[in-house]
Each structure stands twice: as C-alpha cells, then as structure tokens.
Amino acid sequence: MILSLLWLPVAAPIYLLLAHDPNLVTILTMGLLFGAFLLLLRWWGKNVYGRSHLLRQYGLVRSRQNGLDLLQGLGIGLLFTFSLFVVEGLLGWIQFQTPQAVLAKVILEGFVSALGIGFAEELVFRGWVLDELQRDYTLKASLWADAIIFAILHFLKPLSEVIRTLPTFPALVLLGLTLVWAKRSSGGHLGLSIGLHAGLVWAYYILNVGQLVKYSNNVSPWITGVDNNPIAGVMGLLFLSVLAVWMRKRSAFRKNSGKIRL
Fold it and tell me: What sequence ranges are listed for the domain CAAX prenyl protease 2/Lysostaphin resistance protein A-like (predicted)?
C-alpha cells in the first residue's frame, strides 16, 4: 500500500505523456517502482529490524567473489540457453538465420535489460521475499514458497494473457527453485543468482530480438515452446531441470561443508 501511494502520483503522468510508447512507459515506471522499493527497504531495515545494512543480509555485497559469481552465472545462463537452441537446431526443429537487426546493438541492449531484470528480480525474490520467509519457516518451506510466489507474480496480467502463457508456470517455479539453490550454493550471496537469471534472459533476448532463429514447425509447440517461448515447452523444462539439479547439488555440498550463510 505504501509503495503504491509513492508510485502512482509519479507513474500516472508518465502513462498520460508517453502513451504512444508503451515500452518506454514500462521501463520508466518499473524503474521508478524499483527505486521506491529500495527506499522502503532502507526504512524497513531501520524501523522493523533495527539494521541499516539490510541489503547485505539479503546477499547484496560488494566483493570480488560476488562479482566472479555474477560473471559465472552469466556464462552458465548463456551456455544453457544457447545449448538448448543448438540441440533443437541439430534436431531440425529450428533454423538459424542471418540477424534482421544490428546484432551488436541487440547484444548491448539485451545485456543492459537482462542485468537490470536479473538484479531487480533477484533482490526482490531471492533477497527480500526469501529473507522474510526464512525468518518464519523452514528452509524447505521457504524454498518452495519463494519459487511459487515468484511464478505467480509473473501472471499479474489480463486473464486472456494468463491463460495464453499458463504453460510457462511450471518452468517459472522450477526457475525460482534453481535461483534459490544458486544463492545458497554461493554462501547466501546474490551474485550467482543475479548472473544466472540475467544470462538466461540475455541469451533469449539476443536470439529473439535479433531474429536469429526460425521455427520449422516440424514438431509440436509443446516440445519447442508454446508461442515460441522456450520455457513453455518440454525441451525448455528438460534443460531447466538439468540446471536445477546442478544448482541443488552445489547447494547441498555448500550446506554440508558448513559454509552456507542463510
């Protein structure tokens, strides 16, 4: 409620003045909303928990290792996404084609967008939400609750869009689980989960916006992804499952070694 009161007076004029450019409206309003969220986090930390550095508790720390984890996550996200499309290409389900846009521009735009999305969503879901859950529930309950909340909040859209994109729900839950395990595998820091999230988004942005692939329709969309969305298909779920198992094993190893910071 407080966040809405801070956000609406600023966002409303943006909607009115920039109605002709929905993408710019989305970028500006989401940026402002996230800025308001950061301000409220500072208030929340000082007044609710008596802490002035709550972001550190969430795993957002400036350290060499956290930076290396972020780069590692980017690499893993890029590798898994590109590998998915390479496999589908080898199977004849998609065709790679010459980019329809300036590829360097697409890569740069994708990087900035993906890093922003990864940073914002990980700070919210694997930072604030997960921390609040872990204060009251077991690690397992917090893991699943965080993943389900993450998936559900991606469906705050018109009912017709919810129905159309419903096949992505299982993958979003699985991705939520994976990102929690990624955080726990890196000692409770957010670098790896931010990088992993951003890497997945960045790779898909390059392929999709750059128009580098064309679906051959030789197989059901339920295999390659409904509406050409890779996480809405069996192959996307399969690749995400491999990634999830890997991150879960890393998390378990870290926990057993006694180095995890929850």
Answer: 106-200
